[in-house]
Design goal:
This protein is an alpha+beta fold. Helices cover about 50% and strands about 10% of the residues. The protein contains 16 helices and seven strands. Helix 5 packs antiparallel against helix 6. It is globular, with a radius of gyration of 22 Å.
């Protein structure tokens, strides 16, 4: 039997602390975890991922409010990340620190991936899910990461912290006004692409020195992290692919693109799906058809608008694909023809 997936307890501990300050009794939500409240405060404490996500959902749904992810992210500091936090502070520059976070992001959260892409004038930071998860929990985590990065940039760079553009694939939420409380983030919603958070920094800030830069300390701490961390396999690749395709806006990710996101070659990606009895094409066709039926059934969008929403090259391609699976044209399915 495979061991249950676990995640750091630090974020749940922060959430509990925040709610307990408001005199909220969190004990009922904690009982399914079977973990004593005091143990969650230990820097190395772990919690089973699935039950922890359900606990998050319950606490946020009952007591938090939509903006709680942003509030929680503002409490996260480098010091709370344990060995990785100290390693980051030992880097020579902000750029080196960000690449260090990229390499060891499993220490922060094995449920997400973090990428750093440097271009001549812009550095893009990107977060996206590494496993299937409830959509509301994913959005909560993106808010948390956004607010945490906002606070860390201000703390590390001070007056040199740049104004950054943050792109979220989510539609503009009811708590959109709360994002204006971030100090250095200018937020854009409904950005096309796979479900993600992307922050663009001016490339020049990457050379900003870190406050405790020490090459010897950095080498020692990086070695410790390499010995203590192991890459986690994606056990249920099918569910992850299904989720990524359903939550992508305005385009259709290719198999090679999702394989790159999963950190494997396209051939390995295909083999792993085959062990689960399917192919990328089968999943993509089924997901697109399910979403097309949902959008057509809801009304309010034309056939052409549905085609564009699902990332088809043109409307005739969408009509042919839909008819091949449903036996009728999308217009007839929606009662438009």
């Amino acid at each position: 039997m495979k061991p249950a997936a676990t995640s750091p307890a630090r974020y749940l501990n922060l959430l509990l602390h925040l709610l307990e300050q408001r005199d909220i009794d969190c004990a009922p939500a904690l009982s399914p975890l079977g973990i004593e409240r005091a143990r969650l405060a230990h820097p190395l404490a772990k919690v089973p991922t699935g039950p922890a996500i359900r606990t998050f959902q319950q606490l946020v749904g009952e007591h938090g409010g939509a903006a709680l992810g942003l509030q929680l992210g503002q409490l996260i500091t480098a010091g709370q990340l344990g060995e990785l936090g100290h390693t980051v502070l030992s880097c020579a520059t902000l750029g080196e620190a960000l690449h260090c976070v990229e390499e060891f992001y499993d220490v922060i959260s094995p449920s997400f991936r973090f990428q750093v892409k440097q271009q001549p004038h812009i550095c893009e930071l990107a977060w996206f899910p590494a496993q299937a998860m409830p959509y509301d929990f994913m959005l909560f985590c993106f808010d948390m990461a956004l607010a945490a990065m906002d606070g860390l940039l201000v703390h590390l760079l001070g007056d040199a912290a740049p104004l950054c553009d943050a792109y979220l694939t989510r539609a503009q939420p009811s708590h959109a006004a709360s994002y204006r409380g971030l100090k250095r983030m200018r937020c854009h919603f409904a950005h096309p692409g796979v479900p993600s958070l992307r922050i663009c920094l001016p490339a020049g800030v990457l050379e900003h020195p870190m406050p405790l830069g020490n090459a010897d300390e950095l080498a020692m701490r990086r070695d410790r992290l390499r010995q203590s961390t192991r890459p986690l396999p994606q056990d249920d690749l099918l569910s992850w692919v299904d989720m990524m395709l359903r939550q992508t806006v305005g385009e259709q990710p290719s198999q090679s693109f999702l394989a790159q996101m999963a950190g494997v070659s396209a051939s390995t990606f295909a083999r792993r799906l085959a062990t689960q009895g399917t192919t990328f094409r089968e999943i993509a066709n089924r997901v697109r058809h399910d979403m097309a039926r949902q959008l057509l059934g809801e009304g309010g969008l034309s056939v052409g608008e549905v085609s564009a929403r699902l990332g088809y090259a043109d409307t005739p391609s969408f009509v042919r694909a839909f008819k091949a699976m449903a036996g009728v044209t999308p217009g007839r399915y929606a009662g438009q023809g």
